[in-house]
Every structure is written in C-alpha cells, then in structure tokens.
Amino acid sequence: MSENKDPQVAEDGNSVESVKAEKAVKYVYDFTEGNKDLKDLLGGKGANLAEMTNLGLPVPPGFTITTEACKVYLESGEEPAALRDEVSAHLEALEQKMGKKLGQPDNPLLVSVRSGAKFSMPGMMDTVLNIGLSDKSVQGLAKQAGDERFAWDSYRRLIQMFGKTVLGVDGDLFEDALDKAKQAKKVTDDTELDAADLKKLVTRFKKIVKSETGRDFPQDPREQMDLAIRAVFDSWNGERARLYRRQERIPHDLGTAVNICSMVFGNLGPDSGTGVAFTRDPASGQQGVYGDYLQNAQGEDVVAGIRNTVPLAELERIDKKSYDQLMQIMETLENHYKDLCDIEFTIERGRLWMLQTRVGKRTAAAAFRIATQLVDQGLIDEAEALKRVTGDQLAQLMFPRFDEQAKVEQVARGIAASPGAAVGKAVFDSYTAVKWSRSGEKVILIRRETNPDDLDGMIAAEGILTSRGGKTSHAAVVARGMGKTCVCGAEELKVDTKRRRMTIPDGRVVEEGDLISIDGSTGKVYLGEVPVVPSPVVEYFEGRMHPGADDADELVEAVHRMMAFADRKRRLRVRANADNAEDALRARRFGAQGIGLCRTEHMFLGDRRELVERLILADTEAEREEALKQLLPLQKQDFVELFEAMDGLPVTIRLLDPPLHEFLPDITELSVRVALAEARQEPHENELRLLQAVHRLHEQNPMLGLRGVRLGLVVPGLFTMQVRAIAEAAAERRAAKGDPRAEIMIPLVGTVQELEIVREEADKVIAEVEAATGEQLKLPIGTMIELPRAALTAGQIAEAAEFFSFGTNDLTQTVWGFSRDDVEASFFTAYLEKGIFGVSPFETIDKDGVGSLVKSAVKAGRATRPDLKLGVCGEHGGDPESVHFFHEVGLDYVSCSPFRIPVARLEAGRAAVEAEGSDHR
Questions:
Q1: What positions does the domain PEP-utilising enzyme C-terminal occupy (predicted)?
Q2: Ramachandran region, residue 260 (left: φ > 0; alpha: ψ -120 to 50; beta: rest)
C-alpha cells in the first residue's frame, strides 16, 4: 500500500497549508497603516481616513476591514477564519488607545460601522452608529457625558439604525413611533424631546424589534459589532447597491471595506454638531464656503435631509474656532488631493473631528470650471485636467435650458442641487415614477426627502424635487452623480406623499399627474411647462458665442479651453455622419474633420422614393435605364453641395444600402387596393403587376436580405450610376477650384469577390469621367465591415479595399443575433435589470465579442495593406467609452452624429492622455 501523503488536517477540517495561507493574508488595517492609494484594498473611505490620519488631521482612531475579506464572505457565505482574531486584536488596541472598552457599562467606547467601497456609492450601502450601547452602558454614557438626553438619543438612534439595517425591520415602524412621540409632546422636531421621552421611545423601539424579529435587541456589544460588519458585507449585494452600480457602471466584484471608527458625538448639545463641506461649490465650481451644518445632530441627520440645515458659513458665527480650523483643513486637503474635496465632520463640545474626505461628486459645469481653475492655480497640468472631465458631462452641458424670456409662474424656490431644465408630471413615489416613465411619460419625482430606496425612481425621473435637505442631502449627491436635475429643500412646499399631492404657498394643490418644471441651476420651481432654449455651450459650438467676448459665459470659456487641450492631445480624428450639406456644415462648425458616413439611401426619401421603386421593379432594360437617367443628376447635385460644404476634408459616401422593404410599397396596402379594384371591376393592371413584383421581392427579414452590395450586383447600373454621380460632382468641384476628397464605400460586403466586381466597374466609370472632364480624380474605394465574415476575412478583403469603416450597428446585430428594432423594446430592460448587460451593446461596444472582431480585422487588414485607413461609423463612434476602445485598437478616426462630435473630440483627447499614462507606468 502506498504511503498516505494527504496534507495534514487541522482541527476545523481545513488543511494546515490552507490555514497558513489564509493567515498570511492581512484583513484588517489600522488607520495609521493605510494611504489614499489603497482604495482597491481599503475602499475609498478607509483609504482617505488613513490619508488624513497620516497628514496629522484630527481623525477619531479606528481600523478598516479590507475588501478582500468582503470578497471571501460573498463567495463563501462566511467571514475568513482569521478575521475575528484580527478584529479582536485591533479592537483591543483601539480600547487601549481610548482608555475604555467597547460597551463598558460605566465608561463605554462606542464605534461606528460604516461601508466604504473603492468607488463612492452615497447611501447605497449600510452604516450603523453608536455600536456598544445597551441598557447598561447607556447609563454610563449619560454619566460620562453629563447629559442624560444625549445618551438616550444615541441609544434610540442605534436601535433604529440597527433594527432597519442589520435586522431588516421596516424603517417606517420606527419613524411612525418617533412621529407619535413628537405628536404626544406637541413638538415638531426630535431635538425637542427630552430624556424621559427618548427613554420611552427606546422601550417602544425595542418592542418593535422583538415583535418584528422574534428576538430581543442584542445587549452584547461585540455581537452588535459582528452583526453590523456582516450587514455591511451583505449590503454590497443589496438591490439598491446593485442598481446604483449598474447605473454608474461600477463592477460588481469589487466588494466593500468596513470601517470601524471610535464615535465622536455631534448630538451633545448646542456646542456640538455635524456637517458636510465642499472645498468648492459642487454645483457651479466656484470657490468659497459651501456646505451644510446642523447643531446638536449626528451625521445621518444631514445626509438624510430629515432636518433642514444652516449654510456652512453660519458656523463662523456659531463656533468661530472650529470654523477657522475647518477652513484651514479644507485648504490642506484640496492642495493635497489637488481637487474638489467633499468632507464630513463632527464638532463634539467645541472640538473638531474629521470623519471622511473624498474627491467630491460635482455637476458637469463644475467639473469643467474646476479643471481649468486648478490648471491656472498650477495644481494640475492640462493632461490631468482632461482626466477630470468626461464626454458624458459635456453632453449634459449641451442640453437645453429654460427660456428666461418665457412667461412663467414660479411657486417656490429651493436649493439648486444639480443643474438642468426638467419638465414632467408630478409623481410622489418611485414605483409610479418607474411605471409612468416606462409608458413614455416624463415625470418629476417629488418627495419630502429621498432615501436610497428611491434610486430606481430617481433614475426614471427627468428631475427630483424635495422639500427638505440641502446640497449634501442624499437626493443632491445622487442626482449630481447621475447628471440628473435636482432642487432640494424647497421648504415652502408641503409634500403629502400618502395623498399624492403637494401644496404650494398660496394654498393651491398640485395633484399627481400635474405638469411642473424645475430649474436645477437656480432652484426655482414652476407650475406647468416652461419652454426651453439652446444651451450656451451649443451656441459656442455653433459659433454664436465667442470665448473672450464681453458677454461670454464663464462655462463656455472653460469648455473652450478643455476642447483645445483635447484637440492638441488626440490622435483619433473625428468625422460626422451627415447626409446633406446642411448637416455637413453644422458638423464642421462642431469640429468635424470630414464625413465618415454619407448614407445615400437618405437622399431618396420623399419625392425621389418613387424613382428608386421604379428602378428596383423595372422589368426591362429600357425602364431601368430611364430610371437611372433621372436619378443621376439628382445624385450629382447632392454630392456637389456636400463636397462644397466639406471642401478640403474627406467625405466617405456609402453606396445605396436600403433594406428593400423601405423602397417598396406596403404589401398589405397594395393587396387591399388590388382586391378593391377587382371587386369594383375597375382597371388595375398596373397595381396587379406591381403586387406581383412586390411578392417576388418580399423578404421575411429584410435587414439580412437583398441590400447593400447584393442589391448593387443584382440591379444592373445602380452602383455605377452612383459612382458616376460622385465622380462627375468631384470633377465639377475641381474645375471650380474646389478640393473635393470623396471616398467610395461599398456596404455589406461579406467576401472579397463582391468587392472586386464592384470595384472593377467603379474604376471603369471613374476613368470615363476623367477622360471626359480632363480632371484627375483620386477616389479611394473601400468597404464597410459590418458582417462577422467580413471581419474574419479582413485580410483578404483588404487586397481590394483602400479603407475599412466598421459599421458597428449592424456588426452588433449580426454578432449577437439581435434585431435592434425589436429587442430593445422587448427584453433589453430585463437584461439590464438582471445584470446580464451593464449597458446596451448598441450604446457601448461589446469589447469581448464585437470588439474582438474589430481587433482581429484591424490586425489582418493592416497585415495585408499597411497603409489601410481605418474608421468606425456606427453609433459607437460618439460613445465615450467606445472611443477609448477605438483609440486602443488603432483606428484612424471615429464618425458620429453632428451633436456628438464635441463629445468624441473630448474623449479622443482623454484616450490619448490615458494611453500616455499607461505607457509611462
């Protein structure tokens, strides 16, 4: 029998080797051990608490449980075996540092247990304050603080937060009990409840816990802490957290860290308080004193927006010493992080404590202003400034705004929390917001204050309006992160969510379904629909507003500078998808460097449609020749105008690529006409002949049928007519001393033989035009790569093609087997909700599938023809994330709709900067 060489087994059943391996992993870090660059491991909150500690700022002592521990828990359902001992060791060290033990009856150490992922997810995961309080330690806390009310207030907060967050009790049960306590005392604010009232409330809260969970509220402080840690881990996969990550495109596999921090108290009386501060205005980017402060409160009161705060500037009057210290710390942090910082702080009996800092979320306008300000201050360079703004933010700035000249009825004014002009029907809960928006209605979500459970309604709404809260409330922070219009703290409005109505100051009532308008830039609320006007940023791109002029908008100046930075940095050129001279001229004003896609089928809509129909249905060569003869001058004139508009820039013209059904009569309608004519015994020979032809050409799936190069090969003379029109138009422009730079693109090629046949015919036509006009024409001929086979045989196709343009719309359809017109309305919503898609593959390129075909086609094409020009002309050409992919794989240009050109330019610059950074690492 062979010797047993199984690894030695430990008492718990694990191998000794595995236990040793796990023990080698460090799961807990003291705040003194980390730094701001460890966000992957310590999460954003933990890394920044460590950074502030190392800077010598007043941070309450504590420690962080790593994201690696969370990942183990989420994968196995159990914490790592070594975690409890590590937590115990760090807790003991914290107790020694503080001179008291967790939950100690006569002098209790209390801690907060707070989530903290790598990327900020405000309010989406769980936090529990005042861990360590119990029936015994609450008495000790009262004596220690010399304030019985404070102790019982802290205890009721613990039971309320712990009950909802850790034990899963419906939070409304606690809120209702609190409201009844205030009603019984005939007060409106919880600060007006005294110690006896709060003691009774604690008893009521404990009964709610027992009734709802079948167990008593835990009195063991270590059990409280362990259960809270597990609850924070679990909250990573909570419904609202997953929804937020999908919305913000945050990966689902990062996990969250957990921060255990010794408590400091803002609810110890009027010389205590809590607040949130920004080193610059997160809405506008202006420098100054921005934030909210709330006396005699804990941090959750500010963030939740339950009590209305005072502006941070008021702190100077309330507590000048703390105010001056806070201003100094804010300057230190902004200079250290070289960015807008979002800060949470608490003042405990006149002593300032820093509870958190992070690079703050900001509006699109603030992002551009701050980036340029920091460059001017010498804190960052132009390359870093480009990293601080995004194409999505630029797109937000191009949205319309309310017309200041319009007749409006303003009914309230709140805090301008997140800019934009939003109009919609009033709704008072998230469920209705989602339901109505899915039916095509535009809605404004109105709440007293939002909470994380309102996230799906906030996403669905055009804008958010609350009667409570400030710029740092949940509604404001989340709305800014999503680029959603938001007005907070409109105290004049009385919001009744149960009766689904809102009362305005003059007593009138806004019912659910009534139209309202909110201006997130001014905080104004209007009845009815307010008309909108173009954004000043669009006016700048259109050439109607000039940077440096006396009336120039400061935001326009910032956008102008950032676009100049991007244009200097980018390698990708940006072209436009444009089908006529008007669109081409607008694209050129927006910075287009040519046309990447002119869809000639769009030139045959309206009155011209009949000519194409006649061409396709022609029975004889004479009929076909007549139709082509009439089409030629129309096409030529279109191209002359287009070449004139884009003089000196490339114009890629795609030959006719209509799904055939778009140019044929509707088969049902035609059948009815023939049947009626027969029934009435009226002449119908032409209709009958047409019906027979339509039946002959009818396709079950026109998008995969007789279109593109196939149509050009089957209908003699069609593509040669178009090539002749292009060549003659180019010759005419050259004769007029113009500089036409036409490129001819053959659509839907699947094999090189198709392209070779069309190219041979095109070359003959071009030579004939050159001979007839005496003009030398350089007309490159290429193809659209929009079929998987074309991508897979790109090396062969490049033998006959001088350029490729990736048609990623059709390539996505054919790779996935999706019909875009059908699937987006049928099951895409479910796929997004279930997390199968993080984003629609028609919006952002599917890098693993479609993207891999693009990569292989680029490699194979350039192996055959090193000077092969490569571009993309699908909708992905204007998508920020996709632009970075196209830069990475080595395309020469992207092409997109005129409105998206500035976005593509900016992202092309950002892609170049990011690539430089990767090269230097």
A1: 557-909
A2: beta
Upper half-sphere CA count for residue 772 (Cβ side, 13 Å): 13
Show the tokens assigned to 847: 């890098």
**Spatial separation of the C-alpha atoms in residues 174 and 170, rounded to whole Å:** 8
DSSP 551-579: T--HHHHHHHHHHHHHHHH--SEEEEE-S
Which residues, including other chains, have CB under 8 Å from residue 239's CB and lie 6 or more apart? none
pLDDT tens for each residue of 130-140: 999 999 999 99
Q: Count CB neighbours of 668 within 10 A.
A: 8
Q: What token pair was written down for 239?
A: 């419904």
Q: Is the four-CA dihedral 218, 220, 224, 227 of positive or negative sign?
A: negative
Tokens representing 639 are: 């191209």
Tell me the longest C-alpha to C-alpha distance in the chain.
Answer: 106
Distance CA 401, CA 386 (A): 25
Helix axes 581-589, 621-645, angle to 10 degrees: 30
> Annotated catalytic residue: which of 70, 341, 488, 873?
873
Predicted pLDDT at 668: 72
User: Could you give the residue ranges of the DSSP H alpha helices within 99-194?
Assistant: 137-145, 148-165, 171-185
Q: What is the pLDDT of residues 462-511, one digit of tens each?
A: 999 998 877 656 677 777 766 688 898 888 899 998 899 999 999 999 99
Which tokens hold the place of 729?
Answer: 């138009």
3-state secondary structure of 787: coil
Q: How many CB atoms lie within 10 A of CB 504?
A: 18
Catalytic residue among 90, 474, 560, 876: 474
Cβ neighbours of residue 787 under 8 Å, at least 6 residues apart? 748, 749, 750, 810, 811, 814
Lowest mean pLDDT among 65-74, 206-215, 492-501, 652-661: 652-661
Contact between residue 362 and residue 396 where contact means Cβ atoms under 8 Å apart: no
The contacts of residue 499 (CB under 8 Å, 6+ apart) are none
Distance CA 338, CA 341 (A): 9
> In Å, how far from its chain's centre is CA 160?
33
The pLDDT tens digits of the residues spanning 661-714 come to 566 666 677 777 778 877 777 776 767 766 666 666 665 666 676 778 888 888
Q: Is 252 an annotated catalytic residue? A: no
444 sits in which H/E element: strand 443-447
Contact in structure between 887 and 568 (CB atoms under 8 Å): no
Task: Name the helix (H) or strand (E) containing 886.
Answer: helix 880-889
pLDDT-derived band at 8 (thresholds 50, 70, 90) equals very low
Q: What does the alpha-carbon distance between residue 581 and residue 645 come to, in Å, rounded to a whole number?
A: 6
Strands 310-311 and 650-654 come out as unpaired
Phi-psi label, residue 908: left if phi above 0, alpha if psi -120 to 50, beta otherwise? alpha
Q: How far apart are CA 436 and CA 440, in angstroms?
A: 7
Please report how many Cα atoms fall inside a 13 Å half-sphere around the Cα of residue 491, on the Cβ side: 8
d(CA 222, CA 629): 89
CB atoms within 10 A of CB 832: 15
At a CB cut-off of 8 Å and minimum separation 6, what does 918 contact? none
Tokens linked to 567? 């244009």
Angle, alpha carbons 105-109-111 (nearest 5°)? 130
Q: Is 543 exposed, middle or buried (0-12, 13-18, 19+ CB in 10 A)?
A: exposed
Q: Which of 558, 221, 248 is nearest to 382 (CA)?
A: 558
User: CA torsion sign, 558 to 564 to 569 to 575?
Assistant: positive
How far is it, in rounded angstroms, from Cα 285 to Cα 375?
Answer: 14
As a three-state string, the secondary structure of 407-431 is: CCCEEEECEEEECCEEEEEEECCHH
520 neighbors 526 (Cβ within 8 angstroms): no
Beta bridge partners of 503: 494, 509
> Which two three-digit tokens encode residue 579?
């089908």
> Cα 808 to the chain's mean position, in Å?
21
**742, β-bridge pairs:** 651
Q: Give residue 752's pLDDT band: very low, low, confident or very high (50, 70, 90).
A: very high
